[in-house]
Amino acid sequence: MSSLPTYEQIVQLPALFDRTVPDEFIDENGHMNIGDYFRICSHALWKATITAGLGEEYIEKHEKSMFTVEQHMRYYGELRLGQHFTVHTRLLERSSRVLHGMSFVVDQENRTLACTQEATLVHVSTASRSSVDLPLAIGEALDLQIDAGDALGWDAPVCGAMGLRKR
Protein backbone atom coordinates (compact mmCIF):
# COMPACT_ATOMS: atom_id res chain seq x y z
CA MET A 1 0.00 0.00 0.00
CA SER A 2 1.26 3.47 -0.80
CA SER A 3 1.39 6.19 1.87
CA LEU A 4 -1.78 8.05 2.75
CA PRO A 5 -2.59 11.30 0.97
CA THR A 6 -2.89 14.41 3.09
CA TYR A 7 -6.13 16.23 3.80
CA GLU A 8 -5.06 18.96 1.37
CA GLN A 9 -4.47 16.42 -1.39
CA ILE A 10 -7.77 14.57 -0.92
CA VAL A 11 -9.93 17.69 -0.90
CA GLN A 12 -8.58 18.57 -4.36
CA LEU A 13 -11.06 15.91 -5.53
CA PRO A 14 -14.70 17.02 -5.79
CA ALA A 15 -16.84 16.28 -2.72
CA LEU A 16 -19.66 13.98 -3.83
CA PHE A 17 -21.22 14.02 -0.35
CA ASP A 18 -21.02 16.82 2.21
CA ARG A 19 -22.98 16.18 5.38
CA THR A 20 -22.98 15.53 9.11
CA VAL A 21 -23.29 12.13 10.78
CA PRO A 22 -27.00 11.59 11.59
CA ASP A 23 -28.30 9.65 14.57
CA GLU A 24 -29.34 6.69 12.40
CA PHE A 25 -25.67 6.13 11.39
CA ILE A 26 -24.54 5.63 15.00
CA ASP A 27 -23.95 2.07 16.21
CA GLU A 28 -23.53 0.41 19.62
CA ASN A 29 -19.98 1.76 19.88
CA GLY A 30 -21.08 5.38 19.63
CA HIS A 31 -19.63 6.04 16.19
CA MET A 32 -20.65 5.74 12.54
CA ASN A 33 -21.46 2.14 11.62
CA ILE A 34 -19.38 0.30 9.01
CA GLY A 35 -22.49 -0.30 6.90
CA ASP A 36 -22.99 3.44 6.54
CA TYR A 37 -19.36 3.99 5.56
CA PHE A 38 -19.84 1.26 2.95
CA ARG A 39 -23.06 2.81 1.61
CA ILE A 40 -21.73 6.37 1.28
CA CYS A 41 -18.46 5.24 -0.30
CA SER A 42 -20.28 3.01 -2.77
CA HIS A 43 -22.76 5.76 -3.65
CA ALA A 44 -19.93 8.27 -4.16
CA LEU A 45 -18.26 5.92 -6.64
CA TRP A 46 -21.63 5.41 -8.32
CA LYS A 47 -22.01 9.20 -8.63
CA ALA A 48 -18.62 9.33 -10.40
CA THR A 49 -19.82 6.78 -12.97
CA ILE A 50 -23.06 8.72 -13.46
CA THR A 51 -20.96 11.76 -14.36
CA ALA A 52 -19.43 9.65 -17.14
CA GLY A 53 -22.88 8.72 -18.50
CA LEU A 54 -23.69 5.51 -16.62
CA GLY A 55 -26.82 6.72 -14.84
CA GLU A 56 -30.35 5.31 -14.64
CA GLU A 57 -31.27 6.50 -18.13
CA TYR A 58 -28.28 4.62 -19.60
CA ILE A 59 -29.17 1.48 -17.63
CA GLU A 60 -32.79 1.52 -18.80
CA LYS A 61 -32.05 2.42 -22.44
CA HIS A 62 -29.07 0.09 -23.01
CA GLU A 63 -29.77 -2.66 -20.44
CA LYS A 64 -26.21 -2.32 -19.16
CA SER A 65 -24.78 -1.24 -15.83
CA MET A 66 -21.72 -1.37 -13.59
CA PHE A 67 -21.66 -4.21 -11.05
CA THR A 68 -19.27 -4.03 -8.12
CA VAL A 69 -17.23 -7.23 -7.88
CA GLU A 70 -14.68 -6.43 -5.18
CA GLN A 71 -14.15 -3.93 -2.34
CA HIS A 72 -11.50 -3.20 0.23
CA MET A 73 -12.13 -0.83 3.14
CA ARG A 74 -9.73 0.67 5.64
CA TYR A 75 -10.57 2.82 8.65
CA TYR A 76 -8.18 5.49 9.92
CA GLY A 77 -10.39 7.30 12.42
CA GLU A 78 -13.94 7.42 13.66
CA LEU A 79 -16.81 9.73 12.92
CA ARG A 80 -19.28 10.49 15.70
CA LEU A 81 -22.76 11.98 15.89
CA GLY A 82 -22.99 15.43 14.32
CA GLN A 83 -19.47 15.47 12.86
CA HIS A 84 -19.06 17.06 9.44
CA PHE A 85 -17.65 14.79 6.73
CA THR A 86 -17.19 14.76 2.97
CA VAL A 87 -16.71 11.90 0.52
CA HIS A 88 -14.37 12.26 -2.46
CA THR A 89 -13.90 9.74 -5.27
CA ARG A 90 -10.98 9.10 -7.56
CA LEU A 91 -11.10 6.81 -10.58
CA LEU A 92 -7.78 5.01 -10.89
CA GLU A 93 -7.70 2.87 -14.01
CA ARG A 94 -9.92 1.02 -16.45
CA SER A 95 -9.95 -1.55 -19.20
CA SER A 96 -12.62 -2.07 -21.86
CA ARG A 97 -14.92 -3.66 -19.23
CA VAL A 98 -13.50 -2.99 -15.77
CA LEU A 99 -13.17 0.15 -13.64
CA HIS A 100 -10.99 0.52 -10.53
CA GLY A 101 -11.74 3.41 -8.18
CA MET A 102 -11.50 4.67 -4.64
CA SER A 103 -13.60 6.74 -2.26
CA PHE A 104 -12.18 8.80 0.61
CA VAL A 105 -14.22 9.77 3.68
CA VAL A 106 -12.77 12.93 5.22
CA ASP A 107 -13.42 14.15 8.75
CA GLN A 108 -13.77 17.86 8.05
CA GLU A 109 -13.63 18.92 11.70
CA ASN A 110 -10.23 17.30 12.31
CA ARG A 111 -9.04 17.59 8.68
CA THR A 112 -8.14 13.90 8.60
CA LEU A 113 -8.89 10.82 6.53
CA ALA A 114 -11.49 8.64 8.28
CA CYS A 115 -11.92 5.80 5.75
CA THR A 116 -11.11 4.59 2.26
CA GLN A 117 -13.02 2.18 0.08
CA GLU A 118 -11.32 0.74 -2.98
CA ALA A 119 -13.59 -1.01 -5.49
CA THR A 120 -13.53 -2.83 -8.80
CA LEU A 121 -16.61 -2.61 -11.03
CA VAL A 122 -17.46 -4.54 -14.19
CA HIS A 123 -19.65 -3.28 -17.06
CA VAL A 124 -22.43 -5.87 -17.45
CA SER A 125 -25.37 -6.55 -19.72
CA THR A 126 -28.38 -6.69 -17.40
CA ALA A 127 -30.11 -8.95 -19.94
CA SER A 128 -27.39 -11.61 -20.27
CA ARG A 129 -25.74 -10.94 -16.86
CA SER A 130 -22.31 -11.14 -18.51
CA SER A 131 -19.55 -8.57 -18.90
CA VAL A 132 -19.52 -6.40 -22.02
CA ASP A 133 -17.32 -3.61 -23.34
CA LEU A 134 -18.02 -0.04 -22.31
CA PRO A 135 -19.21 2.29 -25.08
CA LEU A 136 -16.39 4.43 -26.50
CA ALA A 137 -17.87 7.75 -25.30
CA ILE A 138 -18.30 6.49 -21.74
CA GLY A 139 -14.79 5.04 -21.74
CA GLU A 140 -13.46 8.41 -22.84
CA ALA A 141 -15.44 10.19 -20.10
CA LEU A 142 -14.03 7.78 -17.50
CA ASP A 143 -10.53 8.38 -18.91
CA LEU A 144 -10.95 12.12 -18.35
CA GLN A 145 -11.73 11.48 -14.69
CA ILE A 146 -8.78 9.09 -14.37
CA ASP A 147 -6.47 11.65 -15.99
CA ALA A 148 -7.75 14.41 -13.68
CA GLY A 149 -6.94 12.27 -10.64
CA ASP A 150 -3.50 11.38 -12.01
CA ALA A 151 -2.77 15.07 -12.61
CA LEU A 152 -3.07 15.76 -8.88
CA GLY A 153 0.37 14.21 -8.43
CA TRP A 154 -0.25 11.79 -5.55
CA ASP A 155 -0.67 8.04 -5.46
CA ALA A 156 -3.91 6.54 -4.19
CA PRO A 157 -3.34 4.27 -1.17
CA VAL A 158 -4.45 1.07 -2.93
CA CYS A 159 -4.33 -2.23 -1.08
CA GLY A 160 -2.31 -3.87 -3.85
CA ALA A 161 -4.52 -6.94 -4.03
CA MET A 162 -7.13 -5.68 -6.48
CA GLY A 163 -7.58 -3.66 -9.64
CA LEU A 164 -7.40 -4.63 -13.29
CA ARG A 165 -6.44 -8.22 -13.91
CA LYS A 166 -3.19 -8.72 -15.75
CA ARG A 167 -3.40 -11.64 -18.16
TrEMBL record:
MF terms (GO), sorted A to Z: hydrolase activity
PANTHER family in alphabetical order: 4-HYDROXYBENZOYL-COA THIOESTERASE FAMILY MEMBER (PTHR31793), BLR1345 PROTEIN (PTHR31793:SF2)
Cited InterPro entries: 4-hydroxybenzoyl-CoA_TE, HotDog_dom_sf
EC id: 3.1.2.-
EC class (word): hydrolase
Positions of transmembrane segments: none
Gene3D superfamilies xrefs: Hotdog Thioesterase (3.10.129.10)
Protein name per UniProt: Acyl-CoA thioester hydrolase
Species of origin: Aeromicrobium panaciterrae
Alphabetical UniProt keywords: Hydrolase
Taxonomy, superkingdom: Bacteria
Pfam families found in the cross-reference section: 4HBT_2
